[in-house]
Amino acid sequence: MPFNALNLSASVMRGVVAAGYTDPTPIQLRAIPVVLSGRDLIASAQTGTGKTAAFALPILSKLGVHARAPRVLILEPTRELAAQVETAFRDFARFTDLRTVALFGGVGYGAQRNELKKGVDVISATPGRLMDYIKGGELSLGSIEILVLDEVDRMLDMGFLPVVKDIISRCPKNRQTLFFSATVPPEIAAVASFALKNPERVECGVNRSVTQSVSHALYPVAWAQKFELLVALLEKTDFQSVLVFSRTKHGADKIASRLKSAKHSVAVLHANRSQNQRIEALAGFKSGKYEIMVATDIAARGIDVAGVTHVINYDVPENPEDYVHRIGRTGRAMAVGDAFTLVSPENADDIRDIQRFIGAKIPELRLEGFPYQPFVVNPSYPKKGQNQRRGGGGRPQGHSGGRQGQGGGGQARQGGNRGGGGGFRGR
Ligand code: AMP
After folding, report:
1. Alpha-carbon gap, residue 49 to 304, rounded angstroms
2. Distance 53 CA to ligand 1 centre (A)
3. What is the spatial distance between Cα 87 and Cα 74, in angstroms, rounded to a whole number?
4. Range with the lowest mean pLDDT among 54-68, 253-267, 268-282, 385-399?
5. What are the strands, taking DSSP E only, across 236-395?
6. Which of 183, 210, 230, 242 has a 20 to 30 A CA-CA distance from 264?
7. How far is C-alpha 113 from the geometric centre of its chain's CA atoms?
8. Closest-lying ligand 1 atom to the alpha carbon of residue 48
9. 210 — pLDDT class (breaks 50, 70, 90)
10. Residues 6+ apart with CB under 8 A from 209
11. Cα torsion for 372, 220, 367, 354, to the nearest 10°?
């Protein structure tokens, strides 16, 4: 079914055409009629599926023309997502007179306050900064007609539940509420029943599959050689832009500074960077100023950077879902991308869980010509589930080096597929 069968307004359809979209994605096909009908919605689609347009297009169609009081509130877990979603709204609304603002922390209040004062129709916000304006008496949610709770599972993971509930209760009862969450475990179902009235369900299922346009592979390596292998992979890969994932903020900084010493142009994205640094990193990576961005999961969740050609998991993600999210950063919107995961014997449990989760075995590759040392398991490495929460310092970080040879046990356990080359476009 083409877009023009979906009853979007003429000016929003012009925005769709200008964005270059020809056919709606499955979530758009299913969600747009529900949003237009005025019913509440609970949808399990994830980022990368066209989820933003699935709510932005019908919302903008319903709004029609500018009115001074804010009518739409979108809550997002991170500053990057709040900014990205606001940009999408602004782009789709370019042939209307509707006004949008992004409210998030880490930057000054002045510019956001000015936009609010001028009068906006759509607010895309993180919960904390939004509450600042509400408590300061600068914003009331009494005129909100449509409330979008996006990435609810991540908002709850980040401890936003009390403030999100507070915000929901400040919106009028007769609003329309749209609820997006990758998973709906019991605590999220409880928020849904608190926030939604007789919702329509759009189940796109938890995305366990890896985008077909992404080829992915494991690169087994001794812990102590991870950085060396990363540099060698970058050397042999014909990449335009690479996203490198680290489990921790500290690790991300360390990898970035070592890559800089190896003469790469590198940006870093994690929650301890100032908002200006985060904006600069993302903008520089998008524009091509930086060929590599090193990021943590929280910071990179959902960000949409066109043209990421490679994702490298420097650290194996602990949470299998994050594997799917991370490598979903490449291969978006039909581009072909490669995703490599550096894996040490210590990561065996994590890899087993990821393969179980995606229901497939990830091929193992070896980089031809790399001076591989025997893989030696560090006997003091905690088992999965022991002292190893996200971002915690429980398990060793590969970039810290110096683990090689510890324990002296275990013999090499190398990749099965020795064909080499797989994801590479050798130079
Ligand atoms: P999202 O899931 O909202 O983060 O969107 C993922 C990417 O898909 C973004 O780059 C969108 O611009 C793009 N996209 C969304 N809908 C469509 C569509 N119908 N056709 C082509 N690209 C789309």
Report:
1. 11
2. 7
3. 13
4. 385-399
5. 242-245, 266-269, 292-295, 310-313, 337-343
6. 210
7. 27
8. 2
9. low
10. 324, 358, 359
11. -170
pTM of the shown model: 0.62
The per-type count for the chain, helices as H runs and strands as E runs, is 15, 13
The residue with tokens 């609820």 is 179
422, with CB counted inside 10 A (0-12, 13-18, 19+), is: middle
Neighbours of 219 (CB within 10 A): 23
Sheet with 200-202, strands from edge to edge, namely: 100-103, 122-125, 72-75, 146-149, 176-180, 41-43, 200-202
Q: Residue 310 burial by CB count (10 A; 0-12/13-18/19+): exposed, middle or buried?
A: buried
Residue whose CA lies nearest to ligand 1 atom number 19: 24
Which residue owns the Cα nearest ligand 1 atom 8? 50
- Confidence at residue 368, expressed as pLDDT on a 0 to 100 scale: 87
Question: What is the arithmetic mean of pLDDT over 102-127?
Answer: 95
Q: How far apart are CA 384 and CA 74, in angstroms?
A: 36
Residue 271 makes CB contacts below 8 A (sequence gap 6+) with 249, 296, 298, 299
CA distances from 10 to 35, 62, 64 (A): 17, 11, 10
Q: Which amino acid is at 56?
A: A
Q: How many CA atoms lie within 13 A of 125 on its CB side?
A: 27
Phi, psi of 424 (to 5 degrees): -95, 150
On the question of pLDDT at 112 being above 50, the answer is: yes
Q: Please state, in angstroms and rounded to a whole number, the distance separating the CA atoms of residues 11 and 92.
A: 9
Tell the residue number behind the tokens 């040490």, with chain if given: 344
Pocket probe for ligand 1: among 304, 329, 334, the residue whose CB has the most ligand atoms within 8 Å is 304
Q: What share of the chain is helix, strand, coil (3-state, %, to 5)?
A: 40, 15, 45
DSSP codes, 41-96: EEE---TTSSHHHHHHHHHHHHH-S--SS--EEEE-SSHHHHHHHHHHHHHHTTTS
297 neighbors 325 (Cβ within 8 angstroms): yes
Of all residues in the chain, the percent with pLDDT exceeding 70 is: 81
- Ligand 1: residues within 6 Å at CB? 21, 23-25, 28, 47-53, 304, 332-333
Strand, coil or helix: 114 = helix
CA of 87 to the centre of ligand 1 (A): 13
Average confidence score pLDDT of the chain: 82
